[in-house]
Amino acid sequence: MPSGDVCLRASGVSKWYRSGSGDTTWALRDVDLTVMRGEFVSLVGPSGCGKSTLLNCVAGITAYDSGTLTLDGAAIRGPGVGRAVVFQDAALLPWRTVAANVAYGLAVQRRTTAAQRRQRVEALIGLVGLTGFERHYPAELSGGMRQRVNLARALATEPELLLMDEPFGALDALTREQLQLELTRICDERRCTVVFVTHDINEAAFLSDRVVVMTGRPGAVHSVVDVPLPRPRRPELRRTSAFAEVEGQLWERLHAQAIEVS
Fold this sequence. Notes:
This protein is α/β, with parallel strands linked by helices. The protein has helices spanning 51-59, 98-102, 104-109, 114-127, 143-156, 173-190, 201-207, 241-261; strands at residues 6-18, 24-36, 40-44, 66-71, 74-75, 83-86, 161-165, 194-197, 210-214, 221-226. It has two domains: 6-82 and 163-261, 3-Layer(aba) Sandwich (Rossmann fold); 92-158, no CATH class. The chain is built from eight helices and ten strands. The strands form two sheets. Strands 6-7-8-3-9-10 form a six-stranded mixed beta sheet, with helices on both faces. Helix 4 (114-127) crosses helix 5 (143-156) and helix 7 packs across helix 8.
């Protein structure tokens, strides 16, 4: 559960792009958002509403044009070791084994000894359920297994904030559900702070403590839905009336913002 400390804060964050002809396209306009430490927050909204743009601004990959964006009170100016990103494409290094891919960020940081890295990598591979595959290469793994490696690699540096951009979007339904369960287990065990982008309302309801519904472009926060469902999350939760109520609220908010801008 969230600890009550603010981890991430966005105040009036805007992002725009200018074309060669000088026209301005707004991707985000005046986004206000607070994420508490230990909280799992999902972003949902229509395609092109700026969910991934906002995530990239938080990651420091994309520069925002106005407003303030802070992590633990410090302004975000670019990438930093306090944030790790998991994209839909696992983008593993094909010439490195599972263990070597998980260890990559640790090796780059050079803040741990070789023995410490081996110990942490072994623990993380076990955490994501890949014990026995340490010496395998990405080409020898299924899509779901590659995404488990991707998650372990992101967790290896012990980030303050884990950013996930539709990490399960390309997977089949069964693998997706299995990884959703694994993610909730890992986040509960490690008390992770997560911002998660998804188009899947069911996924957002199942994973999250809160779900942020964004407007169409330019993206802004339309509303926030609390998810008062018990943890740990179990598969049977999806068949309860409480879950159906949360899912229904999300659909209502999405339809409401669509009507408001039509």
